[in-house]
Amino acid sequence: MKINPDKCVACGNCTYVCPMGAIYVDPVIKRATINRDECVECYACYNGLSVEHMNPPLVRIVRKILHLGRVRFDPEPDVCPTAAFEPDELQWPRVVRRAFSDPRATHKSTGVQGRGTEEVKTNDVTHRVKPGEVGFTIEFGRPGVGVWLRDIQKMTCALAKAGVAFEKKNPFTLLMTDVTAGTLREDVLNEKVMSAIVEIKVGVERTEEIIELVHRVEKEVDTVVSLGVGTRCDEHGEENVIAPILKRLGYKIERAKTNMGLGKITNPVEAQGTEQEIEENREEQDGKIR
Amino acid sequence: MTNTLHRYGSAESFNDDYIVFASPSNGKNDVDSIPKLKKFLEMALPFKPVNIGDPVHGGALRPSRELRTSANWKRDFSPDFRAVIDGIDEPASVVAIFDNQPAAEQFLKVVAEADLGLSVNMSASVEGAEECCKFAGITRHSVGYSLGFEGTTEKLPNTQILTLATMCGHGMISSSLAKKMIDWVKEGRRTPEEAVTYMSRFCSCGVFNPARAKRVLEEARKKME
After folding, report:
1. CATH number at residue A145
2. Residue B77 has what pLDDT?
3. A interface mutation test: which of B3, B131, B143 has the most A CBs within 10 A?
4. A249: in domain
5. Using the 8-state DSSP alphabet, how is residue B205 labeled?
6. Which residues of A are less than 8 Å from B163 in CB distance?
7. What does the angle CA A265 – CA A268 – CA A271 come to, to the nearest 5 degrees?
8. Could you list the residue range(s) of the whole structural domain that residue A10 is in?
9. Same domain, A115 and A78
10. Of A42, A68, A192, B16, which one is least surrounded by beta carbons within 10 A?
């Protein structure tokens, strides 16, 4: 992202809306400026601010007069009055920042499928987490802190060493050069992103071990970690396996996402992907996977 | 995505926060899912959601690329639910937010009866979601628990700011903006309703809960941590 200095009137509205705090008004050039190291290309400024198309020189004169008179300038706080934000043509590896930071970024341009993941949200049709398994989503950088990818590698290497399986359809896994070692591409390590989700799956019996591992390694990572734990309910809709473990570990579970089990495989066979995926779908529909 | 899972707050603080979303899955049920997604949101409207949205175009309050200067004095702060529904043009999760349990329960029941074939999830307090399922006669399939925030938590802002900022799980509502809105409400420069709409426009998928945000701002007006 860049700010056009010919248009910016240094109103300062954008300095508040940047989730990374990467925008400031430079006192020398008297224009809003982006700290490129800290900017994660989330586009919150470009996508979130409403835009007016006022004449920049005129706005500067009015602001100067108001300032001289010590009159408080009170614009709408979610507006860029002169449409000063202009997206960059991002190149690799910087484009990775946007893929993991801007929720509207399309993966077609990056080769990376955004930062989102379906986890248990579509588990009723994907059967991603099966009975007896537990899925972990380990999210780094959120809320509002951000994370350098080199820091996440510390966790992925530790998890790989513990022999866990990384979710293949998770975009972060696609950045790995070796899933058995948990190593990431060298050229992305010095990129900062809004957040990234490492997704793994293990047997229920390893729940406590993985939580302890995450606890231990997160101390080496200079950001916030949000841990999500997903599992299957029994045939009565009850979940009496993972919740007791979490409570025993001292967690007070305040919030959860509940999959209602209303999903069905409705795509025609030719739109169900590879032969293997078609076979899996057939098994799911036949109820072989419970 | 985990964008609704890790909202900050106690279970009690989620009493006015029930998020119901419908998701197509690539290769499973995404073909011809757009009419179903629209129908899902249409069915939500009679139960008076406080927000609806989709991740491609946003929620019921959106920023404008062509704002008139007069907007600084006279601005439309009303949500446009119809624009959200009409604008759905890709198979992606859609969401309806309710500020009370009876509405969420009733909606869930109607959705179950409609048998859309899409995956339907509720993000709420554990007990709240369980009670809604019970009311709607739904047997839960899977559950994903939030274990909250860990790691370098000293980098996080105070709890009121955190409560507001985490209502956009994608992180598009900055802590600075949330703090500014709390300050402006305290100063009397803006009403909580106005402050909420400013923040809503930054949420890129419509999961922001304006009713809960308004309550948080009202509480913050009287006491700042």
Report:
1. 3.30.70
2. 86
3. B143
4. yes
5. S
6. none
7. 95
8. 2-88
9. no
10. A68
